[in-house]
Amino acid sequence: MSELRLPPAERTLGASGIAISPIAWGMWRLAENGRTAGEAARLVHAALDAGINLLDTADIYGFDGSAGFGDAEALLGDVLALEPSLRARMVLATKGGIRPPLPYDQSGPYLKEAIDASLRRMKTDVIDLWQVHRPDLLAHPQEVARALDDAIAAGKVRTLGVSNFTIHQLAALNQFLGNKLVTTQPEISPLRIDCFENGELDQAMMLDLVPLAWSPLGGGRLLSPESARDKAVVAELDRIAGAKGISRSVAAYSWLMAHPAGIVPIIGSQQPERILEGTAALEVRWTREEWYAVLVAARGERMP
């Protein structure tokens, strides 16, 4: 059986020269449960010490529906205030453009306001990767592009990406940008396979975008399967994971990473041991037969 290649040791964000780890750590739950700056610092250390340098957050993370906008960013800022040297070890990514209760605003003035607010909360001078979190259907891509290019010209942002954009929305924004996009962040998991066939990953390869996969464990459903489809996918993952001597989570991460687009899964766990466990995916080889077996389980039918 033919084996697929191992994931690359690192990815570069476009022509920026910024090298990122093949796995990222996400902070959408960083501000939960009254976590202190010291407790958050231990998680940041866990990621960095495991060799994960891409840390992904967003201004909306930590929002409880009424107050607390920017809580996750602010907590990370507290960590960096405690240990400023950590900043040089990370590629710091955040997102904006969601504005409760609108819900979306990517007008030029608001984007400038959002980027400035993220910089203040995180107590940093520059954001390595700033991403439009979800597309604002009322914002012309030319206006969005102008605001983002201005942020780079001002030295506030180094590179740009999008999250949850369709291929056409991404292409429209990229058309107007002087500083082209370097990442796209869709939901991808063995339970969310749309991007394998709807052109998103093909576009990423064509434009040399790094695909960052949010919710690579299917929002936890791979760990606690609910539907018959969930259970079928889990059974296939477990069969292959058992043969390879790895956990189900590592199997899911490595399955994504085996794709030629160079998918970077974002580990969402806030447990140091789970963050470290995820890096085992770097050493897992899949065969074509194994990879397609998981896809067929997810499709619920044979390949055409």
Automatic annotation (TrEMBL):
<dbReference type="GO" id="GO:0005829">
    <property type="term" value="C:cytosol"/>
</dbReference>
<dbReference type="InterPro" id="IPR050523">
    <property type="entry name" value="AKR_Detox_Biosynth"/>
</dbReference>
<dbReference type="InterPro" id="IPR020471">
    <property type="entry name" value="AKR"/>
</dbReference>
<feature type="domain" description="NADP-dependent oxidoreductase">
    <location>
        <begin position="22"/>
        <end position="292"/>
    </location>
</feature>
<dbReference type="InterPro" id="IPR036812">
    <property type="entry name" value="NAD(P)_OxRdtase_dom_sf"/>
</dbReference>
<dbReference type="InterPro" id="IPR023210">
    <property type="entry name" value="NADP_OxRdtase_dom"/>
</dbReference>
<dbReference type="Pfam" id="PF00248">
    <property type="entry name" value="Aldo_ket_red"/>
</dbReference>
<dbReference type="InterPro" id="IPR018170">
    <property type="entry name" value="Aldo/ket_reductase_CS"/>
</dbReference>
<protein>
    <submittedName>
        <fullName>Aldo/keto reductase</fullName>
    </submittedName>
</protein>
<dbReference type="GO" id="GO:0016491">
    <property type="term" value="F:oxidoreductase activity"/>
</dbReference>
